[in-house]
Amino acid sequence: MKVVGGQQDDLASKTKTKKSSEASDEAGATISAAIQGIRTVHAFGMEKVVADEYALLLEKNASIEKKAACASGAALGYGQGAPMMFYAFLFWFGAFLIAEGDVTFEAMMSSLFALMTSAFGMADGAQLAGDQAAAKAAAKEVFALIDDTSDNEPKGGQIPKQCQGTVRFQGVRFAYPERPDVLVYDGFNLSVGAGQTVALCGPSGGGKSTCMALLLGFYRPLAGS
């Protein structure tokens, strides 16, 4: 019976871990986007809207945690209370058998403690079920990230014997996947010679960081090279 309680706690923990992780990720993405674009948020007076949306997501997560806590508490209470009820039944039944002369007191106690020691050993292992469920959920996300492949991985390439160290953009057209209709570069040309220092200046969203992102291979241009 105590093992059953541990299994129920395991099930509750698995459900909570997955749903809570999704809710936390959504809340984290919301506040992260708001902080990154804090100037835009402030310019349009959206501070309260963003704060209310973030609070709503936190309440959603709190609701999930509360339900999981109730389920886990019920499973723990059952797991702790069931052995006591089982003890009571065994002592009553053992007393009945002793009164009938079917067993001796020593035999009854030996059987009782052998049985309960085995049961508690299994129950101690079941108590780790909650941690095991959380670890499995975390491992699934970690391995999904490790196994993820990028669409920007080069399909081929060359290994030159000598490099001049020149960086050159030729007719580059580029838009971020999240905003395909907004061109950051439209026929962008730039040549930086070896040892040359170039400063990119411009307003936010002008494409300064995009230049480095393309150089590092984080994205592929729509056209150009």
In short:
The chain is mainly α. The chain is 64% helix and 7% strand.
The dominant shape is: elongated
Radius of gyration: 32 Å
Number of strands: 2
CATH class of the largest domain: Mainly Alpha
Count of all domains:
2
Sequence of strands across the biggest β-sheet:
1-2
Q: What's the tally of helices?
A: 6
Q: Which residues form runs of ≥5 with pLDDT under 50?
A: none
Give helix and strand order, one letter per element, not per position.
HHHHHEEH
Mean pLDDT: 76
Report on this structure.
The protein has 225 residues and is mainly α. The chain folds into two domains: 2-147, ABC transporter type 1, transmembrane domain (ABC transporter transmembrane region fold, Up-down Bundle); 167-215, no CATH class. Helix content is 64%, strand content 7%. The chain contains six helices and two strands. It has helices at 2-36, 38-43, 47-100, 105-126, 129-147, 208-215, and strands at residues 167-174, 185-192. A two-stranded antiparallel ribbon has the order 1-2. The longest helix is centred in the first third of the chain and has 54 residues, at 47-100. The chain is elongated, with a radius of gyration of 32 Å. The protein starts with a helix and ends in a 10-residue tail after the last helix. Residues 1-23 are annotated as: Disordered. The chain crosses the membrane at residues 84-105.
How would you describe this structure in keywords?
single chain; 225 residues; mainly alpha; ABC transporter transmembrane region fold; 2 domains; two-stranded antiparallel sheet; 6 helices; ABC1_TM_sf; Type_1_exporter
